[in-house]
């Protein structure tokens, strides 16, 4: 069977040429969301290819916003910079240094600078309704989002500040430590659920009575949703890892749809996340554990024709990662892919970079389950053959796959890092 897959790869794959994404662009027509994956959070080529493809989707296909696996408050600083709302941030590098939560390198890296500069230049001569936005859809910024809400109401509606502060007082004993809050909520039933739900309801009622300046309506709604969902996430993660994953991915989809609604009926979004979030979970062993993800949820909530998912992978190279959570990053060697994994089969077909479009003609060939490499921010190369491969039906998981045979680690910016 592996020989059949290798022969099929040779037949259906096309060479991937840097900066030439026409093979994928030819497949994009009526899609509302294009999901761009990555098999690690520390590979230079994945960022560069996604950047090139993103620019072409914006200029040639009319896509209107980018949503990434990052914190909303930090990404909003980038959004304010590229749209000209913020005149204090003088460069893309300074904007990216707002990403100070570990792992900072995911967005505070040299590879992102060129895209942020391009977005700012693209937006300069556009009216506000034609400008492209940049947003974070992850769930981890609980305290930062609460700070944003208080700051907003201090500025536009000071009469509500004290009631909002009282809602947040519930969190004060936990000293901005989510694990501490999670333990208390899970084992001692000491949580702030009722407070944040009431806060969310109050903010949603008030939002439309306030002026929408520089996307303030979207910003306050997103931070309110984030506060409620992050509280749920941290309350759950201690006792149920799978369900906390599901809460996180449902939250990301909720924010994607919130952003799309803000941009109107003709909005079109480009989503940057790890393969484990964008590649349909139903085509992996995640489904056996009751785990869902963004790719699955978007395919279920929209027609499959409106979603286009691109997976990324590599055979070998280097990567930025850490060997423990919250510990300093390092440049690691990515060993040759595990024998008979998807990445190994792609390499056996040829050692050139390549792209495959999965379609009705070849789907049955590539739907056999194979191991598919996934590298997280915590990585142990010497042990990767025992736990870094997700059994996947590739043609069901993705619409296309970009394979870079040998990859290199991205280049992190120096950032004053905070670990919360």
TrEMBL record:
CDD domains: Ere-like. Gene3D superfamilies: EreA-like (biosynthetic domain), EreA-like, domain 2. Pfam families: Erythro_esteras (PF05139). This is Erythromycin esterase-like protein.
